[in-house]
Amino acid sequence: MELTGEMLIGARAVRGTAGTVHGRDPRTGDALAPSYGLGDAADVAAAASLAAAAFGVYRSTTGEQRGALLDTIAAGLEEIAEPLVARVAAETGIAEPRVRGELARTTGQLRMFGALAREGSWISARIDPALPERTPLPRPDLRQRRVPTGPVAVFGASNFPLAFSVAGGDTASALAVGCPVVVKAHSAHPGTSELVGRVIQGAVAALGLPEGVFSLLFGDGESLGVALVRDPRIRAVGFTGSRSGGTALTAAAAARPVPIPVFAEMSSVNPVFLLPGALATRGAELGAAFVTSLTTGAGQLCTNPGLLFAIEGPGLDEFLGAAAAAIAEVDAAAMLTAGIRAAYDDGVSRLREHPLVTEVAAGPGSPGLSTPHLFTTTADAFLADRGLQDEVFGAAALVVRVTGFAEVIDALEGQLTATVHAAAEDLDLAASLLPSLELLAGRIVFDGWPTGVEVGSATVHGGPYPSTSDGRSTSVGTAAIERFLRPVAYQNLPPALRPPGLDDENTLGLRRTVDGVPR
Amino acid sequence: MELTGEMLIGARAVRGTAGTVHGRDPRTGDALAPSYGLGDAADVAAAASLAAAAFGVYRSTTGEQRGALLDTIAAGLEEIAEPLVARVAAETGIAEPRVRGELARTTGQLRMFGALAREGSWISARIDPALPERTPLPRPDLRQRRVPTGPVAVFGASNFPLAFSVAGGDTASALAVGCPVVVKAHSAHPGTSELVGRVIQGAVAALGLPEGVFSLLFGDGESLGVALVRDPRIRAVGFTGSRSGGTALTAAAAARPVPIPVFAEMSSVNPVFLLPGALATRGAELGAAFVTSLTTGAGQLCTNPGLLFAIEGPGLDEFLGAAAAAIAEVDAAAMLTAGIRAAYDDGVSRLREHPLVTEVAAGPGSPGLSTPHLFTTTADAFLADRGLQDEVFGAAALVVRVTGFAEVIDALEGQLTATVHAAAEDLDLAASLLPSLELLAGRIVFDGWPTGVEVGSATVHGGPYPSTSDGRSTSVGTAAIERFLRPVAYQNLPPALRPPGLDDENTLGLRRTVDGVPR
Fold first, then answer.
1. Which uninterrupted H or E stretch holds B246?
2. Are B466 and A60 a contacting pair at CB < 8 A?
3. Are the C-beta atoms of B159 and B192 separated by less than 8 Å?
4. Region (Disordered): which ranges (chains A, B) (predicted)?
5. Which residues of B touch A471 (CB under 8 A)?
6. What gap in Å lies between CA B433 and CA B419, rounded to an integer?
């Protein structure tokens, strides 16, 4: 597949005229061909208009049709696996084995949502049959289902060019429930975006679906991205990126004449709590394992463990010593973009120059690459300076030496994850922390590390503000569809007009709630 | 029970010092004793602080305990039914039989949420058991449940002093799932609010629950109400009232350092579509039935049918004639407050003076009371003036004479309900309208009237903006609990620490999803 540098607006390929951007090899800064033309407000309007026009047909497709679309996209990505993996690696500096893993996750995710679309119980059918004899008033027949909200804008993420981008989780879950999608590609991997976008465009055409089911735009966030969020035909937004980007889109969405929900994943330092028994019995082992998690993907994961709270006492020195030794062995690594590397360097400098922070270890440096850093500080210093819980996106972490956890937990902002390392003798302490951690984070990890998000039915990848803009939802796993649904009730609808899934016979074989009782 | 004019802050009764308000007989404007002292920022902080302190204990109570609280409140309201009904009628002008009906709905609602709390499957447990042998990576054990978001602020509504106020739907659903509640009473029925609030305060004490589970504040929306929404300990807001009030609270919530969701029900004209067959076969009958719905509660219902679209042709004149005749027979009625009556009079004058609107009928007037009004206009006039779809809160309605529905539906804002009257020969036309109506409204009513909201499992009382601030939720029925929940996942949690409902044995006997399959 030849890359053209064009946007995909419905069935067309369109060269944007509002400037250009190139993918770049992050190791060298060299531009990768082709150049990508950036879109403008007219392109946003064209894509949104097609999406709105497609919505009526697409939301009425069967689960089988939407499942076939998602399966076809997954198969199409596998067909171009070799050029796709090569382009991802070239544009992002992510090592090929990780890219292959992310591709498998992405196709697995697409098929998982395809199966969900086919199974169909996610409409959450509720049926309260009429009670004509009820007194003082008869009860009408009431049937409820969930319907898709409308066209969804999805913003690609820099750090997961496949799993959180053009054919990522938000796109898959929106398509599964009947929402057309307009993707704004991340400018750091335009070639990857085009490759994936053409697979989706081809699948939409192959299945005879309306062209507006999918469009792909290139452009900058502040102009094209905000225009997309403001377009009246867009009804929900999925975003993964920076806190400033997420809050700007959220503000734009709230200021619309008809506000819409924004599901923005923004920042998280993923606190880790090292309990005394765990430190005493396996401090060194934990230190080494921590560094593996910290440095995966050059630390550029949303769930990277950037903040640790360790009880002063036996094993803490062993933990820090083993972590320092492991960090010294980690090769310097390319970061996703020069901008991300510069921000990482700034964040490291800020910690290094902080009068109450001590640098414990740093990996071997190399020009143009990033190297992991480990710092420590005291509980008093941490509590005195809220800036010490700001995310440093990359493989930098701060260990706070504490005598207890209550005060520091109260000082923390909302997080995607919270992790506890506990030995058998720590279980009472761990149990006492759980209620606070439930309020702090969307996922609580025991005796593991937060990186590596399992994609399943029970997954929560989301959390209280500011880790996400709306902690009532997840961006990973089957529960992600909740973002793009709203309930509708039908009162005394003639049987012939009942929508699929709300018939008396339950011909679709769904799990439903009848008269308040799950069936 | 002697009314004292005090706020209820946890277990205390506190006289507010920031001004006073009286309940008033809306028929005479006479003040009703006692005067109510209005609260200030310190009272808000005191109530929110107690709520936050109570949250930890309250959210850990069993479903049985919360069910007992809700049942005790229901029984307590029944015990004071006579003085309560008398006070509601005195403060609101609502006729006693309607007040008794609303009381029954309120106690029924409390018990329904009590049963839901006890049954417990609303935590939506999802369990993906560990797969230690999976390749390339083992799967961790992941268990998800939904937890309460935190203390909820509830704003009482003027038009449902019981069912949407101190012990109304938002309070009941928040309490059912473990959220403490701080109510801001509506100033139009302070005595009713105190009576109900003391029942809840007493129930909290009788069951040995932390006092902060419930507080009741008096004050004006712009100062005390906004302060309550801005309090960092409040995590969600339920509101039923005006569009200006709802948008002000939504803006205040979005501007917080940590934004929170606001579920505001704001305005709806509840369009009714009169299809040609229905008009031709039963125009006169529909006209009379329409007036019954229009004038129920002096038209002061959120679901009042204020806008009708009727196909030009046989039966429309009969519809209008029967409606006019029925309106002429309707007694003038007291409205809830002098302010509401003034706004109604303004709205009626605006329609009456509109050059393209014709007055068809008005009920017999009486000083200080309101009388129903019926107007007609053309499709062109309706499409040319968006102001013609503004809600006139009260028993005024506008019939738009149309030749088709598509264009006017596209011009409509989001609604709580949409109603269709169709004869057998209209079914194809009705079917063609359904998809648009699903996008327009939260509840679609066939061959009935939108007033009279059934409280059940399948109920949706909510709808696209601006009928509510968040059309993904309902304020009535068991699905209302969704607003106050967020998901949390637990990864590799030691079995001894698993929260109730997430154990392997399912000792609570919940409906759960295991490995993606509902059980």
1. helix B243-254
2. no
3. no
4. 495-519
5. 149, 486
6. 11
Note the CATH number of domain B7-266+471-484. Answer: 3.40.605.10
Please name which of B399, B223, B382, B191 lies closest in space to residue B294, comparing C-alpha atoms: B399
pLDDT of residue B221: 87
Query: Which of B251, B427, B462 is nearest residue A496 as measured by Cβ atoms?
Result: B427
Residue A84 has pLDDT above 90, yes or no: yes
Interface test with A, best of B386, B457, B492 (most A CBs within 10 A): B457
Going by C-alpha positions, the residue among B352, B287, B280, B279 that lies closest to residue B310 is: B279
A365 — pLDDT class (breaks 50, 70, 90): confident
pLDDT surpasses 80 at A41: yes
Q: Answer yes or no: do A139 and B456 touch at CB < 8 A.
A: yes
Cβ-based contacts of B178 with chain A (< 8 Å): none
pLDDT of residue B504: 97
The C-alpha of A492 sits at a distance from chain B's nearest C-alpha, in angstroms, of: 5
Q: Average the pLDDT over A431-458 and give the result.
A: 97
- Please state, in angstroms and as integers, the Cα–Cα distance from residue A12 to each residue in A7, A43, A123, B397, following that order: 8, 11, 33, 47
Of B56, B446, B489, the CB nearest to A442: B489
- pLDDT tens-digit series, residues A162-211: 999 999 999 999 999 999 999 999 999 999 999 999 999 999 999 999 99
Task: List chain A domain ranges.
Answer: 7-130+147-266+471-484, 272-446
HEC profile of B438-467: HHHEEEEEECCCCCCCCCCCCCCCCCCCCC
Of all helices (H) and strands (E), which one includes residue B145?
Answer: strand B142-148
Q: What local confidence, expressed as pLDDT, does residue B241 receive?
A: 94
Predicted pLDDT at B519: 83
The token duo for A458 is: 């029970």
CB nearest to B457's CB, from A456, A479, A516: A516
Using alpha carbons, select from B56, B74, B75, B72 the residue that is nearest to residue B64.
B72
For residue B417, give the chain A residue with the closest CA.
Answer: A489
Select the residue of A443, A471, A513 nearest B457 (Cβ to Cβ): A513
Q: Which residue has the tokens 């009314």?
A: B3
> Is the pLDDT reported for residue A1 higher than 80?
no
A302 is catalytic: yes
Q: How many CB pairs under 8 A join A and B?
A: 206
Say how far apart CA B208 and CA B411 lie, in whole Å: 54
Class of the domain covering A272-446: alpha beta
Same fold, B7-266+471-484 and B272-446: no
According to the model, what pLDDT value does residue B461 have?
A: 97
Q: Which residues of B are catalytic?
A: 265, 302
Residue of A nearest to B128 (CA): A458
> Does residue B466 have a cis bond before it (omega within 30 degrees)?
yes
Fold of A7-130+147-266+471-484: Aldehyde Dehydrogenase; Chain A, domain 1 (3.40.605)
Residue B267 contacts by C-beta under 8 Å, 6 or more apart in sequence?
A: B242, B243, B390, B391, B393, B466, B467
In the sheet where B152-155 sits, what is the strand order? B12-14, B7-9, B214-217, B181-184, B152-155, B236-240, B262-265
| Residue B294 near residue B257, CB atoms below 8 Å | no
Instruction: Please judge whether B487 and A60 are an interchain contact, meaning their C-beta atoms are less than 8 angstroms apart.
Output: no
* Residue B426 to chain A, least CA–CA distance (Å): 11
Please give, rounded to a whole number of angstroms, the shortest distance from the CA of A71 to a CA of chain B.
19
Q: Torsion-angle region of residue B30: left (phi > 0), alpha (psi -120 to 50) or beta?
A: beta
Token couple for A253: 């969405």
What was the ipTM of the complex prediction?
A: 0.97
**In chain A, helix, strand, coil percent, each to 5?**
40, 20, 35
- Sites in chain B below the pLDDT cut of 50: none
In B, which residues are within 8 Å of A493 by CB distance?
Answer: 444, 446
